Amino acid sequence: MKILIADDERLARERLRALLEEIGMSESVMEARNGREAVNIATTFHPALVFLDIRMPGMDGMEAAKKLTQLHLKPIIIFTTAYGEHALEAFEHQAVDYLLKPIKKERLEQAIKRACTLMPSDSGASVPTVTNARSHITAYVRGELCPIPVNEIYFFSADEKYVLLRWKHGNVLVTETLKDLEKEFAGQFLRIHRSRLIAMVHIASLTRDGKGHYYIKLKELAEQLEISRRHLPNVRKILKDMRISGA
Which domains does the chain have, with CATH numbers? Predict the structure, then answer.
């Protein structure tokens, strides 16, 4: 797998390269010192995975991410940064993960594992499936087909043979499975229960009741969504990296 590390700090690049070597993934690693170099290298060499720092001189990581997602062969993006305030914006750019510096080996392995599940079996130069995510989902709203913006969706919830889609203007049913939706929108939606995916960009806080049950509070919604015990460890790790209140 071709990997690109984009960071303006030499020591940060060296540390990440060393961690990749520890987990046996340093055989094809390229480096860039800023966003513009990252885009140029990705355009020429087509890395499957890009570790992208956010604060870089000239073209920063967010601007570079926009350009990378416009390439014919789009890489999977994992943001790396010393600052947590850009987490939600990072996931809006379809980032698969968001690693806070200093990066820990365990978190790096987790991020790479998630990225690999989104790549086709032949990997390498092929287009990662995450880049095929739609910007709108078409569904019937009050009897008419309506394109629903993905960034206005709060969550998907399994409801017998259908999936309930909750967005800013109410509820609609879609015929797609949670499994397929989770795969397509990895990095944008997080599974908190076997029957529910939530939009990461709309997460407000993590809460716990007196019985030890954990819930997600979404922005603009009064209801709280319960997290299953099975998914709680992964959810808490991700929310902690996002600096979500209560995580």
Answer: 3-131 (3.40.50.2300), 135-241 (2.40.50.1020)
Q: How far is the C-alpha of 247 from the C-alpha of 239, rounded, in Å?
A: 6
Report the chain's terminal Cα–Cα distance, integer Å. 33
**What pLDDT was estimated at residue 126?**
35
In tens, the pLDDT along 216-240 reads 999 999 999 999 999 999 999 888 8
- Report residues of the chain scoring pLDDT below 70: 84-94, 120-133
User: Is 0.85 topped by the overall pTM?
Assistant: no
